[in-house]
Amino acid sequence: MISPGSRRSAYQYVPPDDGTLYFDEKHVDGSEYKGPLTTTASVVRGVTAFAAVAGKLNIPGDKMLGLAKFFLSIGVPGSTKDLFNQIDALSCLESNRQVEVTTVFGSAAPPLTVNLVQASSYDKNTPVLENQELQFDTENNIHYLDILPLKIDVGKYTLEFEISLHDPENLNIYATGGRANALAFLTGTIKVDKAQIGVFDSDAESAATMQKLDLSQDNRISLAANHLQMMRLTFQLVTPLGHNFKPHQVFLKLRHESKVEHIFALESSARQFKIILDFLGLVEKFYYLSGRYEIELAIGDAAMENSFLRVLGYVDLDLPEPPEKASRPPPQPVDPYSRFGPKPEISHIFRSPEKRPPEELSFAFLALTLVPLVGFLIGLLRLGVNFKGFPSSSVPALFSILFHAGIAAVLLLYGLFWLKLDLFTTLKALGLLGVFLIFVGHRTLSHLASTSAKLKTN
């Protein structure tokens, strides 16, 4: 712990579990909290400045490497001040040449050897490879190991590396950080072998008739079962070297026609994966839903290059009727994008038209509707209607013509309303014609009234 006397605070050394080292500020009073990045950068700058004055400080290499890991693991800080502290601290470490194969800023490392001390299976923790020296590629500046001749199987492995410098004088300049561990996946194609599926009675499992499955092809099987029967699925997973493979995820899914899904995990036993579904014990879980169930098999692992989710076929289940208090299937989630898809076609059958009267009767009715019009015309002739009262002057005659044309336009508008126009359009046009008729009609009637008054005076 380093305590500056000018401030009532303390720098606390914190060693995490992942190999990174940093300093954090321990509160003593209400002073402003700086955070581990600023605090660690201040310590690195102070130690570097002190080393420049003292000439040399004997600080263990793993401690300096832990500080470098801390600054590199932060990424890009959220403020410019933290970014400056990060780069400044790394530049101090760069000047002191604390490296692990490369320096913290990626500068070229001195001549060294990278040795794979041990490669162990992650699950079994058994070593499969020991003491292998990595070859160096001068063009790409990388160390590599050709594992193809070593016959290492597919799986997850823990690798332990050790770096040794060629020149003993560099031991006082560079810090390699000791042994470093890494997690690696060796991938490959897994073969699904001896896959079989079948339905059998609960008391005759040994006599079950199994169907072979070829998962390399898109072949689908068809099964039928009732609630007194069982369904069995078995298969093996084999690595390229012929060993059994246990993936991270193996699931069997049954999906009903109503989109209700049921997922079952498969366990490995006796060098194979096996699952037996007893439909009698699953009727409540299946909500007593009879019908077709789609069978899907999902196998996945980070080391398996051919992980898949494949439809094996379907099984028609005949389950008993649900009791009154049986639980109902949960509502299925609605796809939010389904409303943008095609809508179902609307099919509508119009009712047959009603029976109409004979054509002769329709024409007779039309003739009867024209009788009042004919009578009106005959009445006009009997009364001696003439155009003697029509204005002779140009302006009154023009208004009279416009007045009669407006009346004809109203009659034409009625006819159009009967044939094609709607009510609102007709009312708008009728309103405009009404204003026009009021104006020209008033002028026409005023002229007729003045003419009649003059005749009476004379």
TrEMBL record:
Function recorded in the entry: Subunit of the oligosaccharyl transferase (OST) complex that catalyzes the initial transfer of a defined glycan (Glc(3)Man(9)GlcNAc(2) in eukaryotes) from the lipid carrier dolichol-pyrophosphate to an asparagine residue within an Asn-X-Ser/Thr consensus motif in nascent polypeptide chains, the first step in protein N-glycosylation. N-glycosylation occurs cotranslationally and the complex associates with the Sec61 complex at the channel-forming translocon complex that mediates protein translocation across the endoplasmic reticulum (ER). All subunits are required for a maximal enzyme activity.
Name of the protein: Dolichyl-diphosphooligosaccharide--protein glycosyltransferase subunit 2
Subunit structure: Component of the oligosaccharyltransferase (OST) complex.
GO CC, alphabetical: oligosaccharyltransferase complex
Ribophorin II third domain ranges (all copies): 194-317
Domain Ribophorin II C-terminal: 350-450
Family, as annotated: Belongs to the SWP1 family.
InterPro entries (alphabetical): Ribophorin_II_2nd (IPR055375), Ribophorin_II_3rd (IPR055374), Ribophorin_II_C (IPR056790), Ribophorin_II_N (IPR055373), Swp1 (IPR008814)
Membrane topology note: Multi-pass membrane protein
GO biological process per UniProt: protein N-linked glycosylation
Keywords on record: Endoplasmic reticulum, Membrane, Signal, Transmembrane, Transmembrane helix
Domain called Ribophorin II N-terminal: residue spans: 23-94
The species this protein was found in: Musa balbisiana
Membrane-spanning residues: 361-385, 397-417, 423-440
Main location class: endoplasmic reticulum
Chain ranges of the Ribophorin II second domain: 98-170
Cellular compartment(s): Endoplasmic reticulum membrane
Pathway: Protein modification; protein glycosylation
